[in-house]
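[job 0417] fold request received: Outer membrane protein beta-barrel domain-containing protein
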Amino acid sequence: MKRYPICLILLCILSAATQAGELTRVAEGDRFHLAVGSYLITNSETELRYTSPYLLGLTLNTSRDLDMDRRDRVARLDGYYRFTPAHALHFTWYDIQRRGLKSISKDIEWGDVTFPVGASIESRLDTEVLKLAYNYSFYHNEKVELGIGAGLHITKVTAGLAGIASSGSRSNVETSTTAPLPVVGARLNYWMTPKFSFRFALDIFGIEIGNYAGTFTDIDFRLLYQFGKHLGVGGGFNVNSLNLEQNENGHTLEVNNDLGGVTLFLTLNY
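[job 0417] inference complete; emitting structure tokens
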């Protein structure tokens, strides 16, 4: 039942779009778009699994086991450069750095280091995201732009623990993985007025290559208002889910990350 209102909205947009012809050149102020602002994360849930030839398995939930905050606020950059009305390059970057401090309620074994029950553990989880995607607009006029594309979602995840180990000395353990996952996507831009518009983007993929396997889904929705010739403001929401596995020399790291929040930004357009 929930599909019908969405379908009705899309039909109305496409109906309105037929009243105007296809663009033959890039519209003024739409060649380059840069959004600079904040990503207000309202829910971040991460589960880490680590196994090695010497360890049957370690599973950590960053909120439950390490007391990391699910909320955060980070800087974020989004934008695109449009070569022609039909061809554009899109990009996104943000870096989430979560920290935790907790007296653990169970033994944590990481490689050859064991943190015993009751130890005060400092934890960190850094997730840096860079997205690059080419978009082909198969339909584009003054009101509507519909496009499909492909690109790379590059995620670098670094996790670390520090505290007094069972040996009695302070230990630091860390693991890191970087995965360039190819994605395919679709985009819808709709100008309700020359100054007021909304944009929707969906990226999704799943792949297994060599030592890497992963799936990814990203949904981004935003409203924009252009209050000057080159300046505007906007806001929206962004949710994504990443499942990543890396195998190397008998060591396996799995990362399951669900992220969602609100975006607020200023825009620069040329």
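[job 0417] notes: The longest helix spans residues 3-17. The first strand starts at residue 32 and ends at 52.
[job 0417] exit 0
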